Amino acid sequence: MTRATVATIKVKPGQEAQFEAVALKLAAAVNANEPGCLLYTLNKGEEASTYVFMERYKDEDAVKAHRASDHFRTLGREMGAFMDGPPAVLRMTELG
User: Fold this and answer.
1) What pTM was computed for the model?
2) Can you give the pLDDT at residue 32?
């Protein structure tokens, strides 16, 4: 079953450019190295300092592979320095 994730991230004021640089590196690495990932995009929200990752995976194994990847672990830690609290993550199963 196809899995989807929406992760909303608040970034510390003044840290947007640094966060974007690392987050875009992560998106590029995911898209280049994870064949089970069908969509992985970084989006800027309407609210100041808010970003949203939209993710879509072919199945649960692809989600697990993403979470275990070196690029996710390494760049995720780097992004954490610019984040204002933990992300709000919504995990879903696609119905149609």
Assistant:
1) 0.93
2) 97
